[in-house]
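Re-run with default settings, no changes from the original entry. Doing this only to confirm the output is reproducible before filing.
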Amino acid sequence: MKNLKGSIIGITLTIIVLSLLVMACNKSATSPNYGQRKSLAVYLTDDPGMFTSVFIDIKQVEVKIDENLDHDSHFADGDRDEDDDNISQDQFGKWDTLSIRPGVYDIMKLRNGIDTLLAKGNIPVGRIEKIRLTLGTNNSVVTADGTHPLVLTPGTKNYVYVKIEEDDLDDMPAGQLGLWLDFDLSASIQEDNGIFYLKPAIKAFGMEKFGRIEGRVLPMDAHAVVKAYMGKDTATAIPDDGDGDFKIRGLKEGNYSVSFKASNGYKDTTITNVQVSSGRETHIPAIMLHK
Protein backbone atom coordinates (compact mmCIF):
# COMPACT_ATOMS: atom_id res chain seq x y z
CA MET A 1 0.00 0.00 0.00
CA LYS A 2 2.82 2.36 0.87
CA ASN A 3 4.45 1.62 -2.46
CA LEU A 4 1.18 2.47 -4.26
CA LYS A 5 0.87 5.78 -2.41
CA GLY A 6 4.50 6.56 -3.16
CA SER A 7 3.98 5.82 -6.84
CA ILE A 8 0.92 8.08 -7.01
CA ILE A 9 2.76 10.93 -5.27
CA GLY A 10 5.74 10.43 -7.57
CA ILE A 11 3.58 10.54 -10.70
CA THR A 12 1.75 13.63 -9.43
CA LEU A 13 5.00 15.46 -8.74
CA THR A 14 6.31 14.51 -12.17
CA ILE A 15 3.18 15.92 -13.85
CA ILE A 16 3.49 19.17 -11.88
CA VAL A 17 7.19 19.56 -12.76
CA LEU A 18 6.52 18.86 -16.45
CA SER A 19 3.66 21.40 -16.46
CA LEU A 20 5.90 24.07 -14.93
CA LEU A 21 8.60 23.32 -17.50
CA VAL A 22 6.10 23.68 -20.35
CA MET A 23 4.85 27.00 -18.97
CA ALA A 24 8.41 28.26 -18.59
CA CYS A 25 9.25 27.23 -22.13
CA ASN A 26 6.16 28.99 -23.49
CA LYS A 27 7.06 32.19 -21.70
CA SER A 28 10.69 32.12 -22.77
CA ALA A 29 9.54 31.60 -26.37
CA THR A 30 7.65 34.87 -26.27
CA SER A 31 9.78 37.37 -24.41
CA PRO A 32 11.83 37.79 -21.23
CA ASN A 33 9.40 40.65 -20.52
CA TYR A 34 6.29 38.53 -21.11
CA GLY A 35 3.22 40.13 -19.55
CA GLN A 36 4.86 43.54 -19.10
CA ARG A 37 3.57 46.69 -20.77
CA LYS A 38 5.16 49.87 -22.12
CA SER A 39 3.83 53.32 -22.97
CA LEU A 40 3.45 54.37 -26.63
CA ALA A 41 2.66 57.85 -27.98
CA VAL A 42 1.65 58.30 -31.65
CA TYR A 43 1.90 61.75 -33.25
CA LEU A 44 0.27 62.94 -36.47
CA THR A 45 2.02 65.32 -38.89
CA ASP A 46 1.68 66.34 -42.55
CA ASP A 47 3.46 66.11 -45.88
CA PRO A 48 1.22 68.80 -47.42
CA GLY A 49 -0.61 69.21 -50.72
CA MET A 50 -1.95 72.20 -52.62
CA PHE A 51 -5.10 72.60 -50.54
CA THR A 52 -6.38 75.18 -48.10
CA SER A 53 -7.54 72.55 -45.61
CA VAL A 54 -7.95 68.78 -45.53
CA PHE A 55 -10.26 67.40 -42.87
CA ILE A 56 -9.80 63.71 -42.00
CA ASP A 57 -12.23 61.88 -39.70
CA ILE A 58 -10.26 59.50 -37.44
CA LYS A 59 -12.31 57.12 -35.29
CA GLN A 60 -9.80 54.64 -33.87
CA VAL A 61 -6.08 53.87 -33.67
CA GLU A 62 -4.77 50.36 -33.00
CA VAL A 63 -1.29 48.90 -32.74
CA LYS A 64 -0.31 45.32 -33.59
CA ILE A 65 2.32 43.72 -31.34
CA ASP A 66 4.14 40.42 -31.66
CA GLU A 67 5.22 39.43 -28.15
CA ASN A 68 7.38 36.59 -29.48
CA LEU A 69 10.79 38.24 -29.78
CA ASP A 70 12.27 35.01 -31.14
CA HIS A 71 10.66 35.83 -34.49
CA ASP A 72 13.04 37.59 -36.88
CA SER A 73 12.21 41.04 -38.23
CA HIS A 74 10.73 39.57 -41.44
CA PHE A 75 8.41 37.15 -39.67
CA ALA A 76 5.31 39.22 -40.41
CA ASP A 77 6.09 40.04 -44.05
CA GLY A 78 3.42 37.56 -45.17
CA ASP A 79 0.75 39.05 -42.90
CA ARG A 80 -1.72 40.48 -45.41
CA ASP A 81 -3.81 43.37 -44.15
CA GLU A 82 -7.07 42.03 -45.56
CA ASP A 83 -6.74 38.89 -43.43
CA ASP A 84 -7.06 40.59 -40.06
CA ASP A 85 -9.76 43.27 -40.30
CA ASN A 86 -11.70 43.36 -37.05
CA ILE A 87 -9.90 40.30 -35.69
CA SER A 88 -8.16 40.81 -32.36
CA GLN A 89 -5.53 38.12 -32.83
CA ASP A 90 -3.87 36.17 -35.63
CA GLN A 91 -0.66 34.19 -36.10
CA PHE A 92 1.61 37.24 -36.30
CA GLY A 93 0.51 39.07 -33.17
CA LYS A 94 -2.48 40.79 -31.64
CA TRP A 95 -4.11 44.21 -31.86
CA ASP A 96 -4.22 46.64 -28.95
CA THR A 97 -6.50 49.70 -29.05
CA LEU A 98 -4.94 53.03 -28.11
CA SER A 99 -6.63 55.94 -26.40
CA ILE A 100 -7.44 58.80 -28.79
CA ARG A 101 -9.67 61.84 -29.15
CA PRO A 102 -11.82 60.69 -32.07
CA GLY A 103 -12.87 63.45 -34.44
CA VAL A 104 -11.97 65.49 -37.51
CA TYR A 105 -8.35 66.67 -37.90
CA ASP A 106 -7.28 69.47 -40.26
CA ILE A 107 -4.15 67.80 -41.60
CA MET A 108 -2.93 70.93 -43.44
CA LYS A 109 -2.31 72.62 -40.08
CA LEU A 110 0.26 69.94 -39.20
CA ARG A 111 3.13 71.06 -41.40
CA ASN A 112 6.59 72.64 -41.06
CA GLY A 113 7.43 70.79 -37.88
CA ILE A 114 4.00 70.97 -36.27
CA ASP A 115 2.36 67.79 -35.01
CA THR A 116 -0.35 66.69 -32.61
CA LEU A 117 -0.64 63.80 -30.19
CA LEU A 118 -3.02 61.42 -31.94
CA ALA A 119 -3.03 58.36 -29.69
CA LYS A 120 -1.38 56.89 -26.62
CA GLY A 121 -1.60 53.87 -24.38
CA ASN A 122 0.17 51.14 -22.48
CA ILE A 123 0.89 48.22 -24.79
CA PRO A 124 2.43 44.75 -24.28
CA VAL A 125 6.21 44.61 -24.60
CA GLY A 126 7.15 43.17 -27.98
CA ARG A 127 7.80 44.03 -31.62
CA ILE A 128 5.40 46.67 -32.97
CA GLU A 129 4.39 45.48 -36.44
CA LYS A 130 1.65 47.84 -37.66
CA ILE A 131 -0.57 50.78 -36.87
CA ARG A 132 -4.18 50.70 -38.04
CA LEU A 133 -6.30 53.85 -38.36
CA THR A 134 -10.06 53.55 -38.75
CA LEU A 135 -11.57 56.45 -40.71
CA GLY A 136 -15.06 57.86 -40.51
CA THR A 137 -17.09 59.40 -43.33
CA ASN A 138 -16.84 63.07 -42.37
CA ASN A 139 -13.88 63.82 -44.66
CA SER A 140 -13.56 66.92 -46.84
CA VAL A 141 -11.10 69.11 -48.71
CA VAL A 142 -11.07 72.89 -49.07
CA THR A 143 -9.68 74.46 -52.26
CA ALA A 144 -9.92 77.91 -53.85
CA ASP A 145 -13.28 76.76 -55.28
CA GLY A 146 -14.79 75.91 -51.91
CA THR A 147 -15.36 72.84 -49.75
CA HIS A 148 -15.71 69.42 -51.37
CA PRO A 149 -16.58 65.99 -49.94
CA LEU A 150 -13.59 63.67 -49.79
CA VAL A 151 -14.66 60.12 -50.59
CA LEU A 152 -12.67 56.92 -50.37
CA THR A 153 -11.30 55.69 -53.68
CA PRO A 154 -13.52 52.82 -54.93
CA GLY A 155 -12.27 49.54 -53.52
CA THR A 156 -10.49 51.25 -50.61
CA LYS A 157 -11.51 50.23 -47.10
CA ASN A 158 -11.82 52.70 -44.26
CA TYR A 159 -8.79 51.05 -42.59
CA VAL A 160 -5.33 52.54 -43.07
CA TYR A 161 -2.39 50.23 -42.33
CA VAL A 162 1.10 51.58 -41.65
CA LYS A 163 3.96 49.07 -41.41
CA ILE A 164 6.36 49.86 -38.56
CA GLU A 165 10.09 49.18 -38.61
CA GLU A 166 12.30 49.19 -35.51
CA ASP A 167 14.03 52.42 -36.64
CA ASP A 168 10.66 54.21 -36.73
CA LEU A 169 10.37 54.19 -32.94
CA ASP A 170 11.97 56.70 -30.57
CA ASP A 171 12.92 56.10 -26.94
CA MET A 172 11.45 59.04 -25.07
CA PRO A 173 11.64 60.16 -21.41
CA ALA A 174 10.14 57.94 -18.70
CA GLY A 175 10.51 54.83 -20.84
CA GLN A 176 7.91 55.92 -23.38
CA LEU A 177 8.08 55.02 -27.08
CA GLY A 178 7.36 57.73 -29.66
CA LEU A 179 6.17 57.34 -33.25
CA TRP A 180 5.28 59.93 -35.89
CA LEU A 181 2.79 59.31 -38.74
CA ASP A 182 3.36 61.50 -41.81
CA PHE A 183 0.18 61.95 -43.87
CA ASP A 184 1.23 62.56 -47.50
CA LEU A 185 -1.70 64.57 -48.86
CA SER A 186 -0.31 64.95 -52.38
CA ALA A 187 -0.16 61.17 -52.76
CA SER A 188 -3.40 60.56 -50.84
CA ILE A 189 -5.85 62.82 -52.72
CA GLN A 190 -6.78 62.71 -56.41
CA GLU A 191 -9.38 64.80 -58.23
CA ASP A 192 -11.42 63.39 -61.12
CA ASN A 193 -14.24 65.36 -62.79
CA GLY A 194 -14.73 67.51 -59.72
CA ILE A 195 -14.79 64.58 -57.29
CA PHE A 196 -12.00 64.32 -54.73
CA TYR A 197 -10.92 60.79 -53.84
CA LEU A 198 -8.98 59.70 -50.77
CA LYS A 199 -6.57 56.76 -50.62
CA PRO A 200 -4.40 57.54 -47.59
CA ALA A 201 -0.62 57.29 -47.94
CA ILE A 202 1.06 57.42 -44.55
CA LYS A 203 4.63 56.66 -43.52
CA ALA A 204 6.07 56.29 -40.05
CA PHE A 205 9.27 57.78 -38.68
CA GLY A 206 11.09 58.60 -35.47
CA MET A 207 13.07 61.73 -34.67
CA GLU A 208 16.18 59.80 -33.56
CA LYS A 209 16.70 57.70 -36.70
CA PHE A 210 15.53 60.22 -39.34
CA GLY A 211 16.77 63.70 -40.23
CA ARG A 212 15.26 67.11 -40.95
CA ILE A 213 15.82 70.00 -43.34
CA GLU A 214 14.76 73.52 -42.45
CA GLY A 215 15.17 76.93 -44.03
CA ARG A 216 13.41 79.97 -45.53
CA VAL A 217 12.41 80.90 -49.08
CA LEU A 218 11.51 84.43 -50.21
CA PRO A 219 9.78 86.52 -51.48
CA MET A 220 6.42 85.46 -50.16
CA ASP A 221 4.56 86.25 -53.40
CA ALA A 222 6.58 83.53 -55.17
CA HIS A 223 4.40 80.98 -53.31
CA ALA A 224 7.19 78.41 -53.55
CA VAL A 225 6.67 74.71 -52.96
CA VAL A 226 9.72 72.98 -51.49
CA LYS A 227 10.61 69.38 -52.28
CA ALA A 228 13.52 67.32 -50.92
CA TYR A 229 14.41 64.20 -52.88
CA MET A 230 17.01 61.44 -52.93
CA GLY A 231 16.14 58.76 -55.45
CA LYS A 232 12.60 57.61 -54.69
CA ASP A 233 12.67 59.14 -51.20
CA THR A 234 10.80 62.47 -51.50
CA ALA A 235 9.08 64.87 -49.13
CA THR A 236 7.32 68.21 -49.61
CA ALA A 237 6.88 71.42 -47.64
CA ILE A 238 4.70 74.49 -48.17
CA PRO A 239 6.36 77.43 -46.39
CA ASP A 240 4.52 79.40 -43.73
CA ASP A 241 2.54 82.33 -45.05
CA GLY A 242 4.00 84.81 -42.59
CA ASP A 243 7.76 84.39 -42.99
CA GLY A 244 8.53 81.75 -45.64
CA ASP A 245 9.98 79.32 -43.13
CA PHE A 246 9.75 75.62 -43.93
CA LYS A 247 10.72 72.33 -42.33
CA ILE A 248 10.79 68.81 -43.76
CA ARG A 249 11.00 65.88 -41.36
CA GLY A 250 11.18 62.10 -41.58
CA LEU A 251 14.11 62.00 -44.05
CA LYS A 252 16.44 59.03 -44.31
CA GLU A 253 20.13 59.73 -43.90
CA GLY A 254 21.80 60.71 -47.18
CA ASN A 255 22.57 63.36 -49.78
CA TYR A 256 19.48 65.27 -50.98
CA SER A 257 18.56 67.77 -53.64
CA VAL A 258 16.05 70.47 -52.64
CA SER A 259 13.91 72.13 -55.31
CA PHE A 260 11.92 75.36 -55.01
CA LYS A 261 9.06 75.49 -57.50
CA ALA A 262 7.78 79.06 -57.80
CA SER A 263 4.80 80.86 -59.37
CA ASN A 264 3.82 84.47 -60.26
CA GLY A 265 6.67 84.71 -62.78
CA TYR A 266 9.46 83.73 -60.38
CA LYS A 267 12.06 81.23 -61.56
CA ASP A 268 12.42 77.77 -60.04
CA THR A 269 15.71 76.82 -58.46
CA THR A 270 17.33 73.69 -57.04
CA ILE A 271 20.21 73.21 -54.64
CA THR A 272 22.13 69.96 -54.40
CA ASN A 273 24.39 68.11 -51.97
CA VAL A 274 22.24 68.77 -48.91
CA GLN A 275 23.52 66.27 -46.37
CA VAL A 276 20.95 64.81 -43.96
CA SER A 277 22.03 62.92 -40.85
CA SER A 278 19.96 60.79 -38.50
CA GLY A 279 18.58 62.65 -35.51
CA ARG A 280 19.87 66.04 -36.70
CA GLU A 281 18.48 69.14 -38.40
CA THR A 282 20.19 70.44 -41.55
CA HIS A 283 19.84 74.21 -42.00
CA ILE A 284 19.71 75.71 -45.52
CA PRO A 285 20.60 79.42 -45.81
CA ALA A 286 17.71 81.63 -46.94
CA ILE A 287 16.79 81.19 -50.62
CA MET A 288 15.84 84.30 -52.60
CA LEU A 289 13.93 83.63 -55.81
CA HIS A 290 14.04 86.03 -58.78
CA LYS A 291 11.96 86.80 -61.87
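DSSP finds two helices and 24 strands in the chain. The radius of gyration is 25 Å.
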